[in-house]
Amino acid sequence: MSTSSSNIKNIVESLADLLAQRNKRIAFAESATAGYLMSAFACCVHYEVLSGGIVCYDASIKTNLLGVDPKMIDANSAESTPVTEAITQGLRVLIPADYYIGITGLLKPGEVKARQNR
């Protein structure tokens, strides 16, 4: 296991412990991380804190399932703050939880410039 994977596992375990102590649950809408954090929570000791989540890597999942307006994606990018907030709000309608996390991002250098040149 790499150092960063070990660090993430430790952070997830600590957060899951805290959520379990407080009887709270968490849900995710993951784009760039493609379910990585949901998987980490599912594999920890207090897996029961994970309500569930959606992997919304493709924009069509953001629009069709999570209710993000396609115009918002066109105007801002699928990785923008407004879209991240919108996928998190869409998640609230689908999955009962106490905390909702939306994750987007660009994973390759230069991807923003390539998208702007389309």
From TrEMBL:
One Pfam family in the UniProt entry: CinA
InterPro entries hit by this protein: CinA-like_C, CinA_C
Coiled coil ranges: none
Source superkingdom: Bacteria
First and last residue of the signal peptide: none
Gene3D superfamilies membership: CinA-like
Domain CinA C-terminal span(s) in chain numbering: 10-111
Name of the protein in its database record: CinA C-terminal domain-containing protein
Organism: Arachidicoccus ginsenosidivorans
